[in-house]
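Service request form, structural biology core

Requester: graduate student, group of Dr. S.
Request type: structure prediction, single chain
Budget code: on file
Notes: please return the result as structure tokens.

Sequence provided:
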Amino acid sequence: MGIFLKQVDYTYQPGTPFEGRALFDITADIKSGSYTAFIGHTGSGKSTLMQLLNGLNLPTKGTVVVDEVTLTAESKAKDSRLLRQRVGLVFQFPESQLFEETVLKDVAFGPKNFGVSDEEALSRAREALSLVGISEELFERNPFELSGGQMRRVAIAGILAMQPTVLVLDEPTAGLDPKGRKELMALFSDLHTKGMTVVLVTHVMDDVANFADQVYVLEKGRVILSGSPSDLFQEVQLLEEKQLGVPQVTKFAQDLRNRGVAFERLPVTIDEFVEVWLHE
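Core staff response, request fulfilled:
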């Protein structure tokens, strides 16, 4: 069934002097097995929306439906808990959530917290760590002795050990070097290929073009644009006016078009550019 948001509003600290409206009438359809990206400036509501997807927050108005679980303003804690077993949320800088004395124990903590036996939790932890490229020799190390990139992989393994059907990624490659970013994006792509629904928040438009099949653009808590990357990134002027930008190859193709090169449609990936150029 995937995820469906219908006319969702969210207000922080309602009824207090600090009340602030973060989301306005959000409707979005995240299909099962899709790779959906949300883009927008800081403060546009992206992180707030991601926290609604796994029940960390409840909508002030409207509904969030994930498979057979429906969340509204009146939902109970047990509904949110059920949702978190289906939707894994990877925060920006997830390594800050590490706390156990060994890598293996940290990754096993989540499944154990949801009632999985110690043996099964450790089995899941080993499998998840292997999946993210952490070698067995590091399993008994203190996670804070690892490199920054390794710590992030361990934190992501902790989410994967919960065996979610949806993986929500809030700027998952922030602060990583190009090699580390490329490796993590390849990991998420592989998980998607194996059937996992992936929801990505990012400022990197090339990642949106290369991996996503659906994009929502948020501005001041509202959806202002949506569509496939191929369609959305044709709106170069609009996206640049919004200071969001487009993939590098799309910008290059637009510059060529301005100099007289005819493009029926602007390419949004390197592969598309090569194909178009060879047929010119």
